[in-house]
Amino acid sequence: MDRLYLRKPAEGVKRPDMSQILDFMRADLKHLQNIASRFGKVGSITKLEPHNLHRILYDTVEYFRNRMPHLGSRIDIHLISKIDGIEVLMDLELIKWTLENLIKNCVDAMTGKGGNIIVTATHKEPFVYVHIRDEGKGIPRNQWKKIFDPGVTTKKRGWGLGLSLAKRIIEEYHEGKIRVLESALGEGTTIEIKLRTNHPKKGKA
Ligand SMILES: Nc1ncnc2c1ncn2[C@@H]1O[C@H](COP(=O)(O)OP(=O)(O)OP(=O)(O)O)[C@@H](O)[C@H]1O
Ligand SMILES: [Mg+2]
Questions:
Q1: Mutate to test the pocket of ligand 1, among 117, 153, 181, 185 (most ligand atoms within 8 A of CB)
Q2: DSSP readout, 15-60?
Q3: 22-26, 168-172, 195-199: range with highest mean pLDDT
Q4: Which residue has the least CA distance to atom 10 on ligand 1?
Q5: What is the pLDDT of residues 18-64, one digit of tens each?
Q6: Using a 6 Å CB cutoff, which residues line ligand 1?
Q7: What is the percent of the chain with per-residue pLDDT over 90, rounded to a whole number?
Q8: Quick one: which ligand is closest to 145's CA?
Q9: Phi, psi dihedrals of residue 178, rounded to the nearest 5°
Q10: Which of 23, 51, 98, 203 could be disulfide-bonded to 166 (CB atoms 3.0-4.6 Å)?
């Protein structure tokens, strides 16, 4: 998407200066290194550590915001988080990878249509809930479970792997839950992730 910036900008579109382009390139290179490190981890033993999920959501949303197509049908991304400061047990790189894949699916579902992606994060001890909502094409009710199976795709160039890996990461590695919370054809979809907070273990009540 950054390539857009290197071409002649459309009439009335402000071209970012060279230092800004270099900053984006540097960030993308770092990003690719992180992805390589994440893939090394799938299948190996992961270590769950407490992280500020709010910060990770913020950075992920910011990353996408800077790379959304702004010509043609416009896609906006927003974060509504009520979990700042709450620590969540996670493997950082795998959770980032999962969030990026879910948001990428939202972008794909809104291509040619445009609209909003809204990431919401709430907290109810001992869990946090992340909702990723889009205004895309929606998913038929009888596919809500199936889309998490490997190889299920409706995309020309899709592998059908994103959600099956996301499910494995959330449910096997983090003992959390991921599901389609709601979806309506032509209106949009909400995916829910539920993860455990780093609540200090208490004696049996
Ligand atoms: N937010 C969404 N809105 C509409 N459909 C979705 C959404 N997320 C997933 N889907 C449907 O579920 C299918 C499976 O998604 P998944 O991420 O596993 O694979 P993919 O995106 O097709 O390919 P890959 O992620 O491997 O590149 C998609 O092809 C699409 O039909
Ligand atoms: Mg996908």
A1: 153
A2: PPPHHHHHHHHHHHHHHHHHHHHHHHHTTS----EEEEHHHHHHHH
A3: 168-172
A4: 105
A5: 787 788 778 777 777 777 666 666 656 677 899 999 999 999 999 99
A6: 101, 105-106, 109, 134, 136-137, 139, 147, 152-155, 158-164, 189
A7: 63
A8: 1
A9: -135, 135
A10: 98
pTM for the predicted model, two decimal places: 0.83
Residues with CB under 5 A from ligand 2 (ion): 105, 162
Distances (CA, A) of 194 to 61, 109, 120, 126, 181: 18, 22, 12, 10, 11
Contact in structure between 61 and 120 (CB atoms under 8 Å): no
How many distinct helices (H) and strands (E) make up the chain? 5, 7
- Residue 179 three-state SS: strand
Q: What domains appear along the chain, each with residue ranges and CATH number?
A: 47-196 (3.30.565.10)
Q: What is the mean pLDDT of the chain?
A: 86
Residue 24 half-sphere exposure, CB side, CA atoms within 13 Å?
A: 19
**What is the spatial distance between Cα 29 and Cα 153, in angstroms, rounded to a whole number?**
28
Report how far ligand 1's centroid is from the alpha carbon of 147 (Å): 7
Question: How long is the chain?
Answer: 205
